[in-house]
Design goal:
Elements: E1 4-13, H1 19-29, E2 33-38, E3 44-50, H2 52-62, E4 70-79, E5 87-89
Parallel strand pairs: 2-5
Antiparallel strand pairs: 1-3, 1-4, 2-3
């Protein structure tokens, strides 16, 4: 199977609630690489690379997020494949 990458931009109460930490944990759990980083406007950007099925599983998780967060919206942005060695918190 081929690897793909998908960028997500998550809005709502997603900063200062451990969202990036939990996202990185879920990404690794699903066997993905990439990153989660805070944006200046209060949203979180997530880059996920790996098998399409695993990215879809992360997408479903991002729509809910950890208990400490309140997700209002998840926007998916198609992106070209790029190799990441791990799932990092930026």
């Amino acid at each position: 199977m081929s690897s793909v990458c998908q960028k997500f931009v998550v809005s709502g109460r997603v900063q200062m609630v451990g969202f990036r930490y939990h996202t990185a944990h879920q990404g690794l759990k699903f066997g993905l690489t990439g990153y989660a980083k805070n944006l200046n406007d209060g949203r979180v950007e997530v880059m996920a690379c790996g098998e399409r099925q695993a990215i879809e599983a992360l997408d479903e998780w991002l729509k809910v997020g950890p208990k400490t967060s309140t997700v209002a919206d998840v926007v998916k942005i198609e992106t070209a494949f790029r190799h990441y060695s791990d799932f990092k918190i930026l």
